[in-house]
Write a structure and sequence with these properties.
This protein has 280 residues and is an all-beta fold. Helix content is 0%, strand content 51%.
Length: 280
């Protein structure tokens, strides 16, 4: 009498992100994926990589519509309990200053925090408040949003002075920490596409700002400069291709003098869809 052992059936426990556009990378978690032969959304097969028995990564193609996600294996098919939603490419423009929130972190596509090193993980700020007067709102690791590191918005509509800082209303203030913690303003891409990233860093401490400034895409540096002096500026204008969930980090460190005193650095950053732009 012949006997056989049935192969275990696959099971999907979750996937992320829950929505996206063409080129979005979807991570599928579950079990018994090691013999997967096809990944589908609805009836459309999509490219995939078996990372291990419990994880698959797949890429959304331009012919996919909203639907259930399936993992096919010789022992059966697993179906997701929710649909993957195909969204239209974003036409929304984002502005680091105008979108700033003093009550939520993250706030929409934006997050505020610091990094121990340039490409390390982001620690979100937890303290917020008007630490430097009415209309001057900040985030930091400290209660009430006090320095440092910190990110500050001037909400008054006019240039304001506090401590040794003169902050125009069109700039955030990013001040690094005493141990060169990189104050970071992060934008998380809501959808895949090509985006123009334009703005400037500017020295706003009358004591003489001396900082290193950076833009990173998924922790890979795409632009860098130095700010040396009150009023000194470094403008940027990039076009980047991103996937949904990618992160763009604007970072400020304490510069070559290895001191965080008088290092308040202004940031203006606008991010706009640029589907027809050349990707740098």
């Amino acid at each position: 009498m012949l006997s056989y052992t049935a192969l275990p059936r696959p099971r999907i426990t979750s996937f992320s992100p829950a929505n996206g556009t063409e080129r979005t990378i979807v991570t599928i978690l579950g079990e018994n994926f090691d013999a997967a032969t096809d990944i589908r959304i609805g009836d459309v097969s999509i490219p995939f990589t078996i990372d291990n028995a419990t994880q698959i990564t797949a890429e959304i193609t331009d012919d996919v519509s909203t639907g259930i996600l399936y993992v096919d294996t010789p022992s059966g098919t697993a179906a997701s309990s929710t649909t993957f939603s195909v969204s239209s490419p974003s036409n929304t423009a984002y502005d680091a200053v105008a979108d700033f929130s003093s009550t939520n972190n993250p706030a929409g596509a934006w997050s505020y925090g610091y990094k121990a090193a340039l490409a390390s993980s982001l620690t979100l700020f937890t303290g917020s408040g008007p630490a430097y007067g009415s209309g001057i709102v900040s985030w930091s690791p400290n209660s009430g949003g006090a320095c440092c590191p910190m990110v500050v918005r001037n909400t008054t509509g006019a240039t304001q002075s506090y401590l040794s800082i003169t902050q125009p209303a069109d700039l955030l203030n990013l001040h690094p920490g005493a141990s060169d913690e990189k104050t970071t303003v992060r934008w998380t891409a809501p959808a895949a596409g090509s985006y123009r990233i334009a703005g400037r860093f500017q020295g706003i401490d009358t004591g003489g700002t001396t900082t290193d400034v950076h833009i990173l895409h998924n922790n890979a540096e795409v632009w860098a400069n130095n700010i040396n002096g009150y009023g000194a500026e470094a403008a940027f204008n990039l076009t980047l291709s991103v996937n949904a969930g990618d992160v763009i980090d604007f970072e400020v460190g304490f510069g070559s003098n290895n001191a965080y005193y008088n290092d308040s650095t202004g940031l203006a950053a606008a991010i706009t869809p640029s589907a027809n732009s050349e990707v740098n």
